[in-house]
Amino acid sequence: DGWSLFFFFFLTWTLAIFMVFGLSIAVTSFLPPLIGNIISVFIWPLFGGGMAIMAHRLSEGEAIGVFDIFSGIRQYPVQLLLIGLLIFVYVVIVFALGFLLVGQDTFMALASGQQSPELVQQGGKIVLAFLAVMILMFPVMLGGTFAPTLVALAGESAFAALYKGFLAGLKNWSAFLVNGLVLLLISGGVGMVAGLMIGLGGALSGGSMTVIVLLGLLALLLFIPFFGALYLMPYTTSRDVFYDEA
Fold first, then answer.
1. Which of 8, 45, 66, 242 is the most buried (most CB within 10 A)?
2. Radius of gyration of the chain from Cα atoms?
């Protein structure tokens, strides 16, 4: 369903997705790491609402434009920002718990990326903390999938949207699992083709940077259908699960 909506307005969606993707790269590349990572948490809810509105208009037979990606920000800025804030606070709490589980010395050793006796001695504790963080991140992953659509199309509050999204994700865990595995296989396959294309082209051209860059841009085009489905599935999923609300 996501692909159907994407290919119906291929160029519009491609430009809109590149705008969001480019903004995400810009804030993490050109701003201090801490500030960039904090801002990036808010990007998806803000523009996810706009994508939901665009997808809904398209499914209702209306035309869409590239700058409709900002429609969520124009209509529901507070609640979409609040989704990002709630997710950010939750993530900080989860990682603080992980920090407490492994201890300061071990955490600093992990953060530095250097081998140290603490890492060897605390191996079991590190694995336990990692599993705990992954399990605790699961609710916000599920809730965050549905929340922007529920805010933008059903008028839910940020908290209610995250809560309903979490419950919906739990009830449909098997579909989420299959969906995730399919996406993993598709992205892995496309990545292998892209890597082979760039490597082979670079070798045949004698390592020409111009050829490698051009092939890299071409390889990026291979990922466009994948990103199209990935960015539109939250809407199609929400529509399936919350048909009356959305």
1. 45
2. 20
